[in-house]
Amino acid sequence: MTDLVFKGQNGQVLTNSLLVAEKFGKRHADVVRAIENSLTKGSESTNAKLRSSFVLSSYIDNKGEERPMYIMDRDGFSVIAMGFTGDKAMDFKVEFISAFNAMEKKLKELSAPQTYAEALRRLADEVEEKERTKALLEQKTEQLDESKEWYSIKRWAKEHNMNWRSINWRKMKALSYGLGYEIKKIFDANYGRVNIYHINVFKTYFQ
Question: Which of 80, 83, 85 is nearest to 70 (CA)?
């Protein structure tokens, strides 16, 4: 049963058009055509969502020629299987769904900690990774905040003996876009993420 599906690189459960064609007793070219037709029948937003469930790949046929093949997830299979009718087709649909369920259950069991010690190790690894990410963010923030070209409104006001509330941030944003400068962000311990603006934006503001 699990031969109907396989594990993808990112741990997702997948099948492909060859397996579907073989199981349902259909020509592979017809299954490929059904997939391609399904990607154009809905609205643009629907088609965009559906395209994420199919990945165009290829395989080598018995003649040694390269042929198109689609890899699909559970949602993609469900859409294609809707068009297959008959008693046997229903049996095959149930087999595929059971295979998806069995593989997903197996992958969850494999990914779950098997012992208390393993759970603690994973937790420690997660905490360490978060701390490493936070340190890198703080380092980058410090570098940006000390930049001679990028300033937060509060830092600019402090260095120029001004009340930071007197600077209109909406005007600063408009000037940034008008002058072609991006608005970067840094982390502030008191206010969370704050905007920083290029020095030329401040100079233009106070002209």
Answer: 80
